[in-house]
From TrEMBL:
It comes from Sinorhizobium medicae (strain WSM419). GO terms for molecular function: oxidoreductase activity. Residues 7-181 form the Ketoreductase domain. It comes from the Bacteria. It holds the Pfam family adh_short. This is Short-chain dehydrogenase/reductase SDR. Belongs to the short-chain dehydrogenases/reductases (SDR) family. Keywords: Oxidoreductase, Plasmid.
């Protein structure tokens, strides 16, 4: 298939999961795609498409992110869309999670996303055009038991994205966050987890961890349909700021919005009382 006006997409974390599905869908749709992964063995087959540029990329390396953008521009002349998909998971209660594992999550999920953004922004600003898509999670809007630090990284990306949007929309650059619920990818089966569990959390974080493992291959979300939805949203005349993917994600987000509104209204008088009195 050949897209009528193909865009140039740079996708991170394409070796498995959403990244692989997104890259495949974009190439099938006739788009031009910079396909990246830390190790390119699992994505080398995609080079058979003349519209693919295969690059090694560890998003924790800011210089390598800049080189990837430079190579993309050299090959295709521009980068229209950045999809920040690279990320890792981790299972454990907050107290069970040690500092090293928590920092690793932030290095990849948050700072890796930021590195790619910093690399592509000068190019997009110069063209006054572009779209940045940051893959977060419903766990970036709603805290989920057993993945507290993972959710914290995704909440951080949501906050970064909200601010970035306000800064770059006047320059012609769109910023979208994508919040999936559980999809049939390798995420739940490949995520690391705590070595020493605490018994007091067995019925909360422990139960959640077991449920994640049991869900592998049975998740409701179809990653191929998700890839199609992401492209459709990016190409829409007015792309959404937030794209929820999956029934569970939509339900959880609406429930959170209702609960937040109810909480604000219930405590509104006390909240407003904290300001200096009006003259």
């Amino acid at each position: 298939m050949s897209a009528k006006n193909p865009k140039v997409w740079l996708v991170t974390g394409c070796s498995t999961g959403f990244g692989r599905y997104i890259a495949e869908h974009l190439l099938d749709a006739g788009e031009k795609v910079v396909v990246t992964a830390r190790k390119t063995d699992n994505i080398a087959d995609l080079e058979q498409s003349g519209n693919a540029l295969i690059l090694p990329l560890d998003v924790t390396d800011r210089e390598q992110c800049q080189l990837a953008v430079k190579a993309a521009v050299a090959r295709f002349g521009r980068v229209d869309v950045l999809i920040n998909n690279a990320g890792i998971g981790f299972f454990g209660a907050i107290e069970e999670t040690d500092e090293e594992d928590a920092r690793r999550l932030f290095d990849v999920n948050f700072f890796g996303t930021a590195n790619a953004i910093h690399a592509v922004l000068p190019h997009m600003r110069a063209r006054r055009s572009g779209t940045i898509v940051n893959m977060t999670s419903i766990g970036g809007l709603v805290g989920c038991t057993g993945v507290g630090y993972y959710c914290a990284t995704k909440f951080a990306v949501e906050g970064l994205s909200d601010t970035l949007r306000a800064e770059v929309e006047p320059l012609g650059i769109n910023v979208m966050t994508v919040e999936p619920s559980a999809f049939r990818t390798e995420w739940a089966g490949s995520s690391d987890e705590v070595c020493a569990a605490i018994d007091d959390y067995d019925s909360t974080a422990g139960e959640a961890r077991r449920a994640y493992h049991a869900s592998v291959g049975k998740q409701a979300g179809d990653p191929a349909r998700a890839a199609k939805a992401i492209r459709e949203a990016v190409l829409a005349p007015e792309p959404p700021h937030h794209l929820l993917l999956g029934n569970d994600a939509a339900d959880a987000a609406l429930k959170k919005a209702d609960a937040l509104k109810a909480n604000v209204l219930a405590w509104e008088a006390l909240s407003r009382s904290a300001d200096f009195p009006a003259n």
